[in-house]
Amino acid sequence: MPIANVPDRHSPRLMSAAETTVGGAFALPPRTRVLLFGRAGQVGGALARRLAATCALTALDRSGCDLADPAAVRAAILAQRPDVVINAAAWTAVDRAEAEPEAAHRINAQAPGTMAAAAREIGALLVHYSTDYVFDGRKRTPWTEDDSPAPLGVYGRSKLAGERAVQQAGGAHLILRTSWVYGLTGHNFLRTMLRLAAERDELAVVDDQIGAPTWSEAIAQATVQAIGAWLAEPDRRAQREGLFHLSAAGQTSWCGFARAIFELAPDLPRRPRVRAIGTEQYPLPAPRPAWSVLDGSRLEAAFGIRMAGWREALQDCLDSAPRMR
Questions:
Q1: Catalytic residue at 282?
Q2: pLDDT exceeds 50 at position 147
Q3: Core-most of 193, 214, 217, 286, by most CB within 10 Å?
């Protein structure tokens, strides 16, 4: 977490309703069978809320399937025989991964590979999420899917290994890389800032790491649209499989994100001053990419999905708070 004196949480972000066709041409058919791993997470929870009312959903958390057990993962998929498998589960403790690389690899690399092999066996589509942390941050224009990954730490390496395991399984798949995920539930930067607004008059936040905060509900909405498009038009599936970048439009720093939260959030007990600091002033065990903005052009071309700007989505998120509590 790029804020001084706050425990680390990786916040590894919605398209505006006007810019989507979710619930329209590419909604999932009611009889679509979906198996969701990671229902307790930010993206998994958002997906479960959207999918429960529209398809035959089985949603599992850690108690329902231990992703560190390949046999359990495979058995869950073969028992359900879904049309779509969604892996929204991941090891996201970026700094802890440096000390526990094998555990991170089991969840982020081995489990997705097992899912992909089982999904191929039953002819299901696998949707898997990855991260901007597969890049080293040296570039200063948005990263495309054709850019060569070069992760800086264990977390990024484990997620890249997961991508490659899914690809090597040879089945139908969507790998969706996203960035700086936040929402109104779970452990993330937005919730940390809202909590600290009641506790502090000033915060020091990193200003030299640049990315795109992405609302978990936006990720879920775009995912549902992408799956719906894949199911609806079999003759276009080859164009709609593979690796895609899915994150908010625009860019900011963690410091800029914090300032926007305090500017846009209603009814805060106080609005702390946010002081910009450099990464070197807030050392952490795992290195972070300095510049990890993702190019969403391929996603838009394949699915017609245009993600909203990060500030617009943040405002939508904050405005939705009363409805989502």
A1: no
A2: yes
A3: 214
